[in-house]
Amino acid sequence: MTYAVLPRLLATIAIAGGVGLTTACSDPRAETAGKAGPPPRPVLVQTVKFGDRVSERTLVGTIRPRVETDLGFRVTGKVASRLVGVGDQVKAGQPLAALDEVDLGLQTEQAEAEMRAAAATLRQGEADLVRARTLTEKGYAASASLDKQEAATEEARGRLLRAERAVTLARNARSYAVLTADADGVVTGTSIEPGQVVTAGQAAIRVARTGEKEAVVSVPESLIALAQGRAAVSLWSNPGKRYAAKLREFAPVADVATRTYLARFSIPEADAAVQLGMTATVTIAVAETGRVARLPLSALFNQGSGPSVWTVADGGHPQLKPVEVAAYEAADVLIGRGVADGDRVVTLGVSKIDPGQVLRIVDALRF
Predict the structure, then answer these.
(1) Which of 56, 82, 225, 346 has the fewest CB neighbours in a 10 Å radius?
(2) What is the mean pLDDT of residues 221-244?
(3) Which of 13-27, 90-104, 109-123, 149-163 is predicted least confidently?
(4) Which residue has the higher pLDDT, 155 or 288?
(5) Domains: count for the chain
(6) Taking 60 as the threshold, does the pLDDT of residue 10 lie above it?
(7) φ and ψ at 236, to 5 degrees?
(8) What is the DSSP string of 148-165?
(9) How far apart are CA 308 and CA 75, in angstroms?
(10) How many Å from the N-terminal Cα to the C-terminal Cα in the chain?
(11) Distance of CA 351 to CAs 24, 147, 178, 322, Å?
(12) What is the mean pLDDT of residues 158-185?
């Protein structure tokens, strides 16, 4: 290459570079990218609605029967048979266990024999009284003999009455040899076996009545005042369903070990899904003064200057509003001031919002 050609080559390269630069600057895609803004950001919102402030507290308890009775024999004897086991459903009047009736039968027969003897003695005394009265009237016997016979007859009448009562008691005792259920329920415990000798009144079979069920919880000292609030019961097996409950009984003295008060909440509308022994959650709601708006915790935004929320105005423009928090709950926050009824508050992704953005409200996020 000669030095005479070099100036022409440099000129050609300069011209080519200028043409390329001009072409890049006139590219329509570059012009479009510079003019278009970011697309609207999709957000979830919740409409603000103020209402009465209600404080809720939850307590864990168990489902128990309102009435659970330890049934026992009313007489002493040897257990001949036990007819039910734990978990069996029983009806009122159904036999549960039985005693050996041999001795009870002998006692009944003895009482009946004594009654027959007393009846015979009374018949003889009444006949003697008639004869004594006749002889006295005719003057063949003294009045003292008549008085003596009247007393003997009256004594015989009393002995017969006593014998009749003894027969009734003996027959009742024989009927007590069969232990029966006094109401519909379920057997929750047994403490006797065949061959065992039991005494009168000894606990034999425990039966829980299934007609009325309740939730039993232990209330700490700090929540005694809330126990009188509106209560609802939900089961751990089905937490989505709530049953209305009512405080039926509250212990006047705290437990020595736990320092809690035992409370029983009746469940009038308990269905078959509410089984004895299940774990339940008792939610107690108490109305307080002041009106608040309930929002998810994810709606709060704080950059060090206090809690705020993003609201969406007409046209999708966000606006940051400072708020006053009345209380924090497990998943929600109660707002006392800063927003108004009808405001649309962003509930998800508040940390990604800029004041100059345009927001697009969606019903649900799609992943």
Answers:
(1) 225
(2) 86
(3) 13-27
(4) 155
(5) 4
(6) no
(7) -65, -30
(8) HHHHHHHHHHHHHHHHHH
(9) 76
(10) 65
(11) 38, 114, 75, 15
(12) 94
Q: Which two tokens stand for residue 158?
A: 């009393």
Q: Please state the rounded mean pLDDT for residues 336-345.
A: 90
Is residue 33 pLDDT above 70, yes or no? no
CATH number (domain holding residue 164): 1.10.287
Rounded Cα distance between 101 and 80, Å, is: 9
What is the distance between the alpha carbons of residues 246 and 84, in angstroms, rounded to a whole number? 33
Q: What is the pLDDT of residues 92-128, one digit of tens each?
A: 999 999 999 999 999 999 999 999 999 999 999 999 9
Which CATH number goes with the domain that contains 322? Answer: 2.40.420.20
Indicate the burial class of 140 (C-beta count within 10 angstroms; 0-12, 13-18, 19 or more).
Answer: exposed
Phi–psi pair at 162, nearest 5 degrees: -65, -40
Q: Could you tell me if 311 and 247 lie in one domain? A: no
Q: How far is CA 341 from CA 50, 111, 145, 291, 338, in A?
A: 6, 86, 108, 11, 10
| Count of other CB atoms within 10 angstroms of residue 89 | 11
| Residue span of the structural domain in which 268 resides | 57-67+211-288
The DSSP secondary structure of 45-72, one letter per residue, reads: EEE--EEEEEEEEEEEEEEEES-EEEE-
* 229, two tokens: 């609030």
Q: Give one DSSP letter per residue of 251-277, joined into a string.
A: -SS--TTT--EEEEEE-TT--TT--TT
